[in-house]
Amino acid sequence: MRVLGRNVGRHLALAFAVWAGLSCAAVAQEVSLVRVDEVRLEPLTQTVPVIGRLVARQIGDVATRIGGAVEAFHVEVGDRVSADQIIAELDTDLLNAQLALVEGELAQAEADLESEQATRQLAQQELDRYAGLQGTQAYSKARFDDAVQNVARAQAAISKAQAQIATRRAGLTLNRLNLEYARIRAPYDGVIIRRMVETGAYVRTGDALVHMMSDTNLEVEADVPSQRIVSLLPGTQVSVQLDDGSAHTATVRASLPVENPLTRTRAVRFVPEFAGEVERLADAQTVTVMVPVGAEREVLTVHKDAIIQRGGQSVVYVVVEDAAQLRTIELGDATGGRVEVLSGLEQGDKVVVRGNERLQPGARVQIDAGS
Asked: Over its length of 371 residues, how does the chain's per-residue pLDDT go in tens digits?
């Protein structure tokens, strides 16, 4: 029985050794599917964050151009309006009465002109008749002179009537403008922030009816330390970050030549280019501006997803002849989704960016065609 037990144990040990050997061989032959990214040169500019704010380029009161009682309001606080949309209307009863009066005065002036023109025509006929009598006994110098004066007076009356017509037409235009101004319109696309008066209130020329703002025409203003201004020339692009964490690009429009002596800063205006749909932007909303602190330089970079931290060191897997080689690297500054490489890699090296967590040095790999 002891011999039989010893033989069974030997057979089991041999079977386990064979199974272990086969398993190791299978592991050795296993190929991992990975994605890779090339190590490449990229421009790098060191930046420092500066807190800025969104500034509305179009914000202010919408005032009435004429006086009158507010007959109707067509907007409420928070309403979004389009340019030329009617915000409120003033009472127009008096304006309509004045328009009718001026229209009547214009008609009277035109009738007076026709009468004066007829008078001048008669005076001219009389002058022509006396002029035809020159050299005859019926000719009278005194009557001829009177006829000349009558023509002159008739012409003056015509000129006066024409001036009256011009005045009445100007008054007609003014009254029609006042009727148009009785409809207070939005000067641009925006949002109603505040209503100054209510229906029934009397407003005078220049009084504000609403306070509105365009939330689609915004700039970024940041108080930048004076020593950093030299790197912010008009047209320089910088990165800005909203409070939701989204990153966007902005271009320097102007640096204001006024310095705050307490903070040693100057206000700089940036024109942002918001990527995608950005909602709920507001005047004075906080924005972080990444201000460059040095000249741009070209550096060797590696994708951040390729970097693994092991034992306090940064390592990456480089694909060489379908095998993963582990390399220790030294890193520098970050630039977007990439990191500067100071040593350990060369331009063109293919590093694993997906599937590197479970890799072992020397493992066989296959590059995913979607890399």
From this structure: 443 344 544 544 444 444 444 444 444 458 889 999 999 988 877 778 999 999 999 999 999 999 999 999 999 999 999 999 999 999 999 999 999 999 999 999 899 888 888 988 888 888 888 788 787 877 788 888 888 888 899 899 889 999 999 999 999 999 999 999 999 999 999 999 999 999 999 999 999 999 999 988 899 999 999 888 888 889 998 999 998 888 899 999 999 999 999 999 999 999 999 876 666 788 999 999 998 876 677 889 999 999 999 888 999 999 999 899 999 999 987 776 788 999 999 999 999 999 888 888 999 999 887 65
Beta-carbon count within 10 A of 328 CB: 12
Q: pTM of the prediction?
A: 0.60
Do 214 and 67 meet the contact criterion of CB atoms below 8 Å apart?
no
Give the DSSP H or E segment for 166: helix 141-181
Q: For each of the domains in the chain, give its residue range(s) and CATH number, in order of start.
A: 30-44+298-367 (2.40.420.20), 47-57+216-296 (2.40.30.170), 97-172 (1.10.287)
DSSP 300: E
